[in-house]
Amino acid sequence: METDPAFGTTAAPAAPADATAAPGGGDAVLAVTTLGAGVVKRTTRLADGRDLVYYDDPGTALGPERSVDARALDTRPDTATMRQDVLTGDWITFATQRQTRVMMPGADADPLAPQTATNPSEVPSRYDVAVFENRSPSFGPALANAVGTAPAAVDPPQGLADLEQIGLGRTRTSVGRCEVVCFSPEHAGSFGTQSVTRARTVIEAWADRTATLSALPGIEQVFPFENRGEAIGVTLPHPHGQIYAYPYVTPRTQRLRESIARTGDDLFARILDAEQGSDRVVLQGEHWTAFVPFAARWPLEVQLLPHRHVPDFTALDDAERDELAPLYLRLLRGVDALYASPTPYIAAWHQAPVHVGRDTIRMRLELTSPRRAADKLKFLAGSESAMSAWTAEILPEDAAARLRDAIASVPLPVEETR
Q: What start and end residues bound the annotated signal peptide (predicted)?
């Protein structure tokens, strides 16, 4: 075995190209770790060397073994390239290989379902929660992968100081990491359709992946998120989210840092106090409050904020994680109860950067949807798209009242019995 700094784990040899073992054969587990809430982490590799991590529910019905990925896979693509927009300083990634990714396959060709004899998917074994490196990533490894086929980055970033310089024609290799988080082995659904136990397992996985990715060389920010619905641009109906690990601090977070510098380090504490005293709160627990923000841009926009300062998932204690599972499910199920059909949304977990702003930037969920009526979507036209100057059609207080009613109409999530 060899240590691969680009992946942050100990690598096992890839399966030979002529391997013929059927799905379900062999045991590919490299390491087993017990995490919080009784979640068990099992680390392995896919046939081309990409990381695959299983997170087993507490009391899972699954056995400890995991199958070897016996596929013969193509060479992994070169890491994508970033170009800098000299007008803004933003870095734009050009990941041309993403043009060929699968679009809305049926259950018999679902790449996120467990492998079968007729479906050579990305996950060799039955699972509760599975996380693996994206096969068509926007950000890829910096170093050559001795166990697979990942090539070395041609022109990697040389730290934040390098990326913060601005000039014409600047390019860098898009070093980072993109992972897929499968919430369930089922073909259809979303985070909101999962059980409380499963939601708690995913929260543990988010925390573990945040810690792992934050420790990789060159990573500056880690971003877990879920895109839900074709109106958002989802290409797979399978219940899943993603995690991006960026080589820079994202533009949105840079603007937040500027606001904190101008208004004070306790900005999030003051926001929470103000929102808790308003009629925009939609859901509240001992450790979390969900509210429609004072200046919401989208027809549906909710933020979920922890009551104490924590920079990311790794800093949440057990009580905060335990409450988050059912509370987040209530919020999502309320969002779906607004209309007769499921609501498209982006659920974005903003976390503090890895190296800067951790004492002042509080983690939070920002859930947004373009749906402004049962059969209408908000499109970003001239002012919003070109100038980032927004016009909102729905008052935040009215949106909060509708969402409170919707949340009240759905049954409370309960712990499952096995």
A: none
